[in-house]
Amino acid sequence: MEPNQGFGGTLWMIFLFALFASGSGENDRDFKMCGTWRHGNGLLTLAHDLKRGCGTITISANESSLSIRGEITAQCENSSVIKLDPSPEARERPFCVYWEPLLDQLWVEVNGQNHTLCWPSGLQGNCCTDLSQGENKGISTYGILNATQRDDIISYKTHPAYEFFGEIINCKNEFCDEASQGSGDKVNMIEETVMRSKVLGNVVLPCALSSVVEMEEGFQGYNITLPAPQGVPPQMIPSVHLPSCLKPPEKKKVKVVCTYFKNSILFQGSSKADQNDIRILEDVVGITVENEIITNLPEPIRIGFHHSAIPTSHSRKCVSWDTKKDPAEVTWKKEGCETIQKGVEDTECHCNHLTYFAILVQLEPRPVRHLAALTVITSMGCAASTLSCVVLIYFLNTQRRAKDQSTAVHRGLAMALFLLSLLFFLTGTVANVGGNKACWVFGAALHYALLSSFSWMFIEVLHTFWLVYMVFSPSPNPYVWHLVGFGLPAVPVIVLLAIGKVYGVIEVVSSEDVNNPYLMCWMDVSPHSVGLLAHYFINLTFLAVVVLSGLIMLFLVLRNIQNRDEWRKNKVAFLSIWGLSCLFGTTWGLGFLDFGQLSEFIPFLFCILNSLQGFFLMLRFYILERMRKQSGSSLDGSTASSTRQHMLQEKS
């Protein structure tokens, strides 16, 4: 455990203040000035020069810069220039300046992006508020138009600058005490010793209700009863269990503060896309230990949430506030918490660290239909393909032309499919047993195996083209094929591993049971993630190239042999199409057809054909070997002449 550097101050005070932001008072508890910045098309900057005091703040804009300058802060002193994203076409950008005097926090939102100029520094005793507007600064071509203060219009014209004058007051007396007195929830300090822990009581800390527990030597754990806001039934209040391992062994006494928030509007994600997909339930519980950062507890904190019934089509997860990221952004993470569902109205969170905790609900689930059946089909197919690839590799190594170039290409594809089938068969087990640490490596290996398989399918296409259309040109050395098939796929995987947080445990949600998803090791393809970007630019690009080239090559080969006598035999025609499809991987293109009415049966067809690709490949070589023995002639087809004569047996 290491000292808490502002955790119990900065973030906690943000919530405590904002919780009562809707209360009444004679003084303005915050300041908001918005407008449209009319600028040029060159380099744009956000400049600020903020000093301590309570005087004048000037918000100005010109052709290239938006500026905030003045004396308004209690603790913050900051001066810098921030480069903004270029906008070659647009000449206007919306912006807002926000000031929260109680926290000494100031930030600017420009074109939807937040820029924090003064970070929260705890509750202030005296602060600068009640900002009143001064005289407008003339009319100009570039500047601020459609200016508003607290959503009240100031001017529709374009002005180069606006001035505001502040007044210094006692923030705690004006803001917090009024909110506490109006709530009716203030209680006296209580001292009670229970199970060697001292309950200091349910006290009204500045702007919030909290429970404070003092852990002494011999602390054996404790169940906390959180204070109930006015009008909330006791049975709807979250329950908290503190484990015995929470107390730092090197300290004789230490306090735990548990804060309960009934309104979670401040904790919702800042992104509109996030708000459309997910929602934080109204109860939020914050737990902190004074002057400590607590992580990796051997026994978890247990928090019981009581909520309205959640529809079965929506999944729910315990999440915690990610304090390592920008505190001005609301970021929730699932890591470190286990979700225990105790009914449609009760959820218990087991978490191994301290921060703020809540229940996240997926509002727009995208479940997979028939997931259980598809999982069984895929597992059985992968098991069959794994064994088949072992047999095929042995066969290719023992036949007469084991060192032939065609055989080397076939062997490379068989090895890649063996690795892909084996890893995919084991991915669910590894995800459930090993968790994120194991899946970080296993997911990368599975991704490599998939890209390697795609690469060898493309090599099969190129090799066939070489044999058919470049008869008198020597085929590339097998080492070149191996470098492309096994070396090239490693490049994007290594890059993604270096980026980090791409591979891990992912959940595949079933439409039949959204609360019990299938776990597997793969890429994190959640919205706005690096994994999703990599999936589109790497995986789908590989797949599109393989499928398109395979279909083109299949068409060219079949056009060359359709007029031959062998082709007129139904069995031979079927084996030609089926055998070459196994080599070229064209069946993977079924993934592009999973939409509309086709979505009912395409997933089944996709899983059956592609999970059994290794088995079908072995079957193809077995059939061709039988045909060769029955005809008494070589159907090996590894040379250019045999390919031209017998396209069916080409590259056997």
Automatic annotation (TrEMBL):
Any GO molecular function: G protein-coupled receptor activity
Signal peptide: 1-25
UniProt KW keywords: Disulfide bond, Membrane, Signal, Transmembrane, Transmembrane helix
TM segment ranges: 371-396, 408-426, 446-472, 479-499, 536-558, 570-590, 602-623
Every GAIN-B domain range: 211-367
Main location, first listed in the record: membrane
GO cellular component, one term: plasma membrane
Localization in the cell: Membrane
Biased composition regions of type Low complexity, renumbered to the chain: 632-643
Domain G-protein coupled receptors family 2 profile: 374-625
Region (Disordered): 632-652
InterPro entries assigned to the protein according to its UniProt record, in alphabetical order: GAIN_B, GAIN_dom_sf, GPCR_2-like_7TM, GPCR_2_secretin-like, GPS
Membrane-topology descriptor: Multi-pass membrane protein
A Gene Ontology BP annotation from the UniProt entry: cell surface receptor signaling pathway
Protein name: Adhesion G protein-coupled receptor G1
Provenance organism: Oncorhynchus kisutch
Gene behind this protein: LOC109895477
